[in-house]
Amino acid sequence: MTEHIDNKKVTTDLRYRFEYLSKFLNFTLNDITALNTLAPVLFPRIPVIADTVYRKLFSFDATKQYFLVRHQGFDNISANQEIDSALETTQMTFRKDMLSMYLKRVLTQHEWNDTFLQYLSQVGRMHTPQAGSSSSINVDYIHINLLLGYLEHLIIDILWNAENLDDQAKYTMVTAINKFFWIQNDFFTMHYLSSTKDDLSSTEKITKDSHSCCILN
Question: How far apart are CA 129 and CA 191, in angstroms?
Answer without folding.
Answer: 9
